[in-house]
Design a protein that fits this description.
alpha+beta, five-stranded mixed sheet, 6 helices, about 70% helix, rod-shaped
Length: about 350
């Protein structure tokens, strides 16, 4: 009868399929962005380790630079000392020449003075030689430090090059993930659109079956009596038979690697229940969802493609406290989504 009414009405509303495509697209983006975050976290850890190595190298460079500065300061001090010694040596040589002239003029007393000055001159020459040796050692140390600095700069350049390569790999991975996401969303949305279009044809334009967002909504009275979770209404079973047929067709079309499921959600109104069978609305909503799922399984639908969920009175679609609002909130919702 539902099929005949659908044919008489004619036309088809594609808006549910479009809404469902959009929700699937958002869910797919969230999933692949989660994968991307984990991959980026792994690569960030790798880059962080390289940053730690760079920090150690920078610390070594700072230490070597400080040491080089100290060595340069010491070298300048020795050069100043050497300059003073040379000045003193020049003065001593002049004094020696002066006394030598006096010696030539006055004899033995002056000769003794000249010998003393010669001894002082030799001592100062020895001091100058030691100072020159120290300067040479400092020059060698400075050359060694410069070689170490060059090696560290080379290591830094290599590390920066590796970092750039890592960033390039991250960007490339992001592009591949985006492409995969687009392909996945496009493929799943096509099958979802086909399913909802087929379901609209099967269910027809009944007043007790509505579309709310991306879900098909059945009033609970289509399937269940008040306070019960047993499928004993022929009209409701006929609707579920049509749903099972659409699901079986969908299973044949969608590739097995796509993790799709049909989620059956049970909802009640806010009025409490306390029966021997159900202690509260939550138990009643879960039992009704399970009854629908078990019936679909009995019609050949794979259990792996079905999910039963109960929300009790905690997800109302009409917050009013009228009988009409209570009736809208007592419902069974069907949503095709990813596992």
């Amino acid at each position: 009868m539902a099929l005949e009414r659908a044919r008489r009405d004619g036309g088809m509303n594609y808006w549910p399929g479009f809404v469902d495509v959009l929700s699937s697209f958002i869910l797919g983006i969230i999933f692949l962005l989660t994968v991307f975050v984990f991959v980026q976290f792994y690569l960030t850890q790798e880059v962080t380790g390289k940053d730690t190595a760079l920090n150690r190298l920078n610390a070594q460079i700072a230490q070597l630079t400080e040491l080089l500065s100290l060595e340069k300061t010491g070298k300048l001090g020795l050069e100043e000392q050497l300059s003073m010694l040379r000045s003193s040596l020049t003065a001593a040589e002049g004094e020696r020449d002066r006394y030598k002239g006096l010696y030539d003029g006055v004899g033995g007393g002056a000769q003794g003075k000249a010998a003393e000055l010669s001894g002082q001159l030799d001592a100062e020459r020895r001091l100058s030689s030691r100072a020159l040796a120290q300067v040479e050692v400092l020059n060698q140390q400075i050359a060694a430090l410069r070689r170490q600095l060059a090696a560290l700069e080379e290591a830094l350049d290599a590390s920066e090059k590796r970092d750039k390569e890592s960033q390039s790999r991250i960007a490339d991975l992001g592009q591949r993930l985006n492409v995969a996401l687009a392909q996945r969303v496009q493929e799943l949305s096509r099958y979802r659109s086909d399913f909802f279009g087929r379901l609209r044809v099967i269910l027809g334009n009944r007043p007790d079956i509505r579309i709310v967002g991306d879900r098909f909504v059945f009033q609970s009275e289509v399937f269940f009596d008040t306070g019960r979770a047993t499928l004993d209404k022929p009209e409701g079973l006929a609707e579920l038979d049509g749903l099972a047929t659409a699901l079986l067709e969908l299973e044949k079309k969608i590739p097995g690697e796509i993790p799709w499921v049909l989620r059956v959600d049970g909802n009640t109104d806010v009025r409490g229940i306390n029966s021997p069978q159900f202690r509260n609305n939550w138990e009643l909503s879960v039992a009704r969802a399970i009854s629908v799922v078990q019936y679909l399984i009995s019609k050949g639908v794979s259990p792996q493609r079905l999910v039963a969920a109960g929300f009790g009175e905690f997800q109302p679609i009409d917050p009013d406290k009228t009988e009409e609002a209570f009736g809208r909130n007592r419902r069974i919702e069907l949503k095709l989504t990813e596992r």
